Amino acid sequence: MSELRRVVLDTETTGLEWRQGDRIIEIGCVELLNRKLTGNRFQRYLNPERPVAAGAQVVHGLTDEFLADKPKFAEIADELIEFVAGAEVIIHNAPFDTGFLDHELGLIDRPELKALCRTVTDTLKMARDLRPGKKNNLDALCVEFGVDNAGRQLHGALLDAELLAEVYLAMTRGQESLMMDLEAGDPEAAAFAHGERPAIRLLVASAEELAEHERVLAEIDKASGGKTLWRALTA
Predict the structure, then answer these.
(1) CB within 10 Å: which end of the chain, N or C, has fewer?
(2) Nearest-CA neighbor of 14 among 44, 61, 66, 51?
(3) Containing domain of residue 235, as a range?
(4) Whole-prediction pTM value?
(5) pLDDT tens for residues 59-98?
(6) Residues with a known catalytic role
(7) Per-residue b/e over 148-171, b at no fewer than 16 CB within 10 Å?
(8) d(CA 11, CA 9)
(9) Is-contact 56 47, C-beta < 8 A?
(10) CATH code at position 83
(11) Burial class of 31 by CB neighbour count within 10 A (0 to 12, 13 to 18, 19+)
């Protein structure tokens, strides 16, 4: 069975809207291989070339002074692309992070994230499907699934990626074990579960099987006084 590689990713930004010029100031990623944290991480602080909004600084604590000597996104883009290449990328509220990442990648003429990785999975959407009507931010999910987030006084991309990895594993434990069982067993069942459609095999009943089928139907028909639905339909 091929190894299932996933990258759990989070970002911190100067503000909430890349369309208004906000930029990424931190990227954090952790790697999962066959549902286990490997210890392989990617984390960079970035110089956004613009001030950090006061409201954003309250959330993550990253100041203009701290970021001033950090690399720009263009300088670390190749490392990031190599880290996510071919993986399923898992993000909480994916449209927010992918919007920023795609904007940064576009500024240096690189493809969007979805073209660089195998697929993007949004754990916020998963959580809303699983827990409709409830709070589904990362803190709430940590409480729900017993993930220790006591050290999360401020948001941080790497810390949040590590917490999200644990939450994702907890949310998908039953589903993922089923998928792994399928992949380890019947190849056709595994292919079907992943959206592939194997060729349909037609099994034709033998003459003996058909005769036995008719015998059972006749017995049921006799017991019902000739009032079975299939007899009425075939009449």
Answers:
(1) C
(2) 51
(3) 203-235
(4) 0.72
(5) 888 999 999 999 999 999 999 999 999 999 999 999 999 9
(6) 155
(7) ebeeeeebbbbbbbbbbbbbbbeb
(8) 7
(9) no
(10) 3.30.420.10
(11) buried
